[in-house]
Amino acid sequence: MVDVAVIGIVIMLALMALGMNVGLSMALVGFGGYWYVLNFKAALGMLQTTPAIQAGTYSLTVIPLFVLMGNFAFMSGMSKGLYTAANRWLNRLPGGLSCATMAACAGFGAICGSTAATAATMGTVAIPEMRKYGYDDALSTGSVSVGGTLGILIPPSAPLIVYGILAEQSIGRLFAASIIPGILLTALLCLTVIARVKLRPSLAPAGERCTWPERLASLKGLFWMFVLFVGVFYCMFSGVLTINEAAAAGAFMAMVITLITGNLNFRSFMSVMKDTVKTTAMTYLLLIGAVIFGSFLAITRLPMIMANGISAMEISPYLIFAAVVLIYFILGCLMDALPMIMLTVPIFLPVMLNLGFDPIWFGVMIIFVMQLGLITPPVGMNCYVISGIARDVPLQTIFRGSGPFIIPVVIAIAICTAFPGIATWLPTLFYG
User: Fold this and answer.
1) 13, part of any domain
2) Cβ-Cβ contacts under 8 Å for 130 (sequence gap 6 or more)
3) Does residue 4 fall inside a structural domain?
4) Could you give phi then psi for residue 32, rounded to 5 degrees?
């Protein structure tokens, strides 16, 4: 049966390369493989029940709710106040505007959960500002590209939600596990900017000096983001509400904030709803296709055979983990984060569990590697997003500016591998 599974994977990748929708590719190959291994009646029964079961799963409602919250937060204009405050506090550092962009991306990612939305929102605010002060185009666009990747690491994160559902792990634990790694990576990215500007001062001019009253006054722009952030995270981690209820409360709070700030009208409301439905439909189609394909892999026993075979090898588990990271990095250069999670988790998670790795920790590490794929060619989705904002900056310049930031991401992976408690301490503290 293993050869059937391998052939199925090859066919699925070929369909994706030809341009077929990823979810439909997984569903089609899963259905055909199930039919071949068992029979047509069994495959048809699976096709009849799986979409309804997945679409009706209560835990999945957290996806559209957090997407809705992020869309309202984007519409409310919180990003400008966030960037202004970060700039006032960090502008004296070498490359201060770039560091402020990183910090603002981390803050916006905490209420958005989407890497493309974080990059697009902060790019619209930060790139004109950095250009006004004479920042190098590669540094400014690269900073926003890599800063946007923090949107899928710092909770709420759509890829972490999908991983939790596929891996049958607590979404709350996954969110808690990603907080400290997110802060760590943000600090490493800022240090990288400082080091680059120290080595090449021509990349960024010295920042303007701000007085303490100006810094303190800038905190007013963080008020609504602080209200939303504290409200949602308190509800999630205090046990007052479930994750789904906290997501619903966050979406409602974000809508009210958008209304109070004067950015909500019928047209903007319909735009938010339309974007939420599109994103949710795409995610559900991917998830349904992944479950159908995973059912096909399960009856071929490929994941278990791989897990048992690799576990029996007399080499360090960390070498095997390094090989898995390399595979994720290669795949990340070729496909988006959500399809990659849905394609690989059913295959690699049993291997990691057999080797004794914590599934919560492994989920965070997957997100780290996915961040590399978002800033490296040929896909590098965040670089294409920024290219659409800074239209006069060549795409190769944006990729060149993002390249040096691969180093801090790799360092963060190494640190969290050497000290897994960085990811597992908060989940244990919050949930026992």
Assistant:
1) no
2) 97, 98, 101, 139, 140, 143, 204
3) no
4) -65, -40
What pLDDT is recorded for position 182?
93
pTM of the model: 0.82
Q: How many CB atoms lie within 10 A of CB 134?
A: 11
Q: What is the DSSP string of 67-115?
A: HHHHHHHHHHTHHHHHHHHHHHHHTTSTTHHHHHHHHHHHHHHHHH--H
- Cα–Cα dist 329/157, whole Å: 19
CB atoms under 10 Å from CB of 335, counted, come to: 18
Burial class (CB in 10 A: 0-12, 13-18, 19+), 421: exposed
Model confidence pLDDT, tens digit, residues 162-181: 889 888 888 889 999 999 99
Contacts of 367 (CB under 8 A, 6+ apart): 152, 153, 157, 159, 160, 163, 178, 337
Residue 121's φ and ψ, nearest 5 degrees, are: -65, -50
Task: Express each pLDDT in 320-365 by its tens digit.
Answer: 888 888 888 877 776 667 777 877 888 888 888 888 899 999 999 9
Which structure tokens are listed for 415? 């640190």
Place of tokens 């250009």: 131
Q: How far apart are CA 82 and CA 137, in angstroms?
A: 22
Cβ atoms of residues 333 and 373 within 8 Å: yes
Query: What are all long-range contacts of 31-34, with beta carbons under 8 Å and residues at least 24 apart?
Result: 31/292, 31/296, 32/8, 33/4, 33/5, 33/8, 33/293, 33/296, 33/300, 34/292, 34/295, 34/296, 34/299
Q: Could you tell me what percent of the chain has a pLDDT over 70?
A: 97
The answer to whether position 6 is within a domain reads no
Domain that holds residue 277: 20-431
Contact 195, 405 (CB under 8 A): no
Percent residues over pLDDT 90 in the chain = 21
Query: How many folded domains does the chain comprise?
Result: 1
pLDDT band at 311 (very low <50, low <70, confident <90, very high): low
Count each helix (H run) and each strand (E run) in the chain, helices first: 22, 0
**237 vs 432: CA distance, rounded Å:** 12
106 occurs within a structural domain: yes
